[in-house]
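hey so i finally got around to running the thing on that chain from the lab meeting. sorry it took forever, my laptop kept dying and i had to restart like 3 times. anyway pasting the input first so we r on the same page abt which one it is
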Amino acid sequence: MTTELLFRDKKIPVSFISSDQKAIPQLISVLESKHARSATAGQSELNDISRIEIIGNHAILHRSQSEDSIQMPLY
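ok and heres what got predicted. didnt touch it at all, straight out
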């Protein structure tokens, strides 16, 4: 299933392989927390996220400026 998430005024495609409907609210919570922590450090890794995949209880954030990705646990 694929949907779009509006995060910091940016639409990010999110695809997930899970029947757990709590994954999207948990993803938003984790992204907000990570953004707050990185903003206090003066940089945010989340500014160049091009798409997100949720597989099980992990989110894989794909960056648009590089072929790098960030894997984060949701729970």
